[in-house]
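Help: why these numbers?

___
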Amino acid sequence: MSKSGASTLRDYSADSRMIVVSVLAAGLGAVCAVLAWVLIRLIGLATNLFYFHRWAFVEVEPADAPMHWWSIFIPVVGGLMVGAIARYGAKNIRGHGMPEAVEAVVFGGAKVDPKVAVLKPVATAISIGSGGPFGAEGPVIASGGAVGSVLGQLLPLTDAERSVMLVAGAAAGMAAAFYCPLSAVLLAVELLLFEWRPRSLVPVTMACVTAAAVRRLLLGAAPIFAMPPTTVVMHHQALVGALAVGVVMAFLAIGLNTAIHWCEAQWEKLPIHWMWYPALGGLIVGVGGYFFPRALGVGYGTITDFVNQDWTWTLVLGVLTVKVVIWVGSLSSNTAGGILAPLLMIGAASGAAMGHWLPWISPGAWAAVGMVSLLAASIGAPLTSAMLAVELTHNGGLTLPVLLACMTAYALSALLQPRSMLTAGLSRKGKHLSREYGVDPLEMVTVGEVMSLVEGPLDAPEMSIGEGETLKAAAEKMALSEAEVIPVVDVAGNVVGLLRMMDLLKARAKSAQREGDRERVIRMKWPLGR
């Protein structure tokens, strides 16, 4: 006998609004691709102005410019400009983008100041163009999210739909910056959406696909870090090496995370306004860049050298010392810039160094494994990181060691540190964020399983619920009506029971029991005796 409400239950809660939001997200993806193109061009312009003293939008590296003693102060000037924009324009342009997007989705109702969409790219271009050791992807994520949020605020959307638009814009920004649509979707799932539902996954995917398609027209479809393809059969020694790389990268990520947030605390102790922090951080960048220019700027060329086995020990040591110091020092000053490219460079240098002692796979293989496994441990996104190795290099032959290293690094970092690089700052603000997803226990239990029976059928009152409905639906109805007890009706509309507030806890108790109780289900018996 079917219970009342059982026929209305479905695998998914999606409705026609998903199509509406998907269409909006597709248009948003195209806008974010143009935004990424604009930011890359602005970074080129700023770099040319600061280091080559010419008006040009071509992409160049600060390391290619001649270094003079006064070059030390170029990042200081950039820091002053970023600090001024943050103080008198929009404070939220500070930071590397992703934590701010997470905070807006979870705690801010997906409402972002429209000024962020305009000022964040400008501040980022100035920061990176003046030598800041950052990537453009984080700011593009923040700017795309801001555009999505503004669009969501202009249209009559629900809070949940507005969050989807913010995440769709953020993911589309990453897809356009790195030409990595699948990695961007995975990033949204692992870091930004905080749910796995068709209503959010479909629009985000539409935005990422559109952004990547438009990006291909604007910037081309070549891999960001082209490397020789890996065609050899992966042997067991390579997988053991991948385990070792994952372990090392986990501890490196923990060290970087600790250093960044310790430095942030030290900046806040200074007896000056936070507006001046980026300038002081720029001084650190200037001094380090004077002695090791390849630590300045985005550094895509340096990463490409690592994954093509075109490196020296001087380059490795320079990245692992100077790049780390200036990145930690400037990032903790809360200037504008992304963390993905620096993490990829540091991981690539570490992987290349370890590859000197690990079994040979192919040119640049261990650098590629190192760069994405450090990213996985740092931001807590192993699937995104593993897919990035494929989309950034177009080399699918490293799938096994990449996936193993990413998961190893992720597992150790999850065990050994309470917060990732993305959530530690939120924790310091007193905002707790859980990164674990699971099916709500209230979704798995029906009202009829926990209700209290009543004698004889009674007429159903206006407020009631079917015995086949889930406890989640009952909890929502009780919350909206502020009722502690709600009548339960059968398929004929007769009252057959009562659901109390305490009955909702039975599902939670069942879930806790499932997580905590250990038992041996199958017991082996010896051939002789019991």
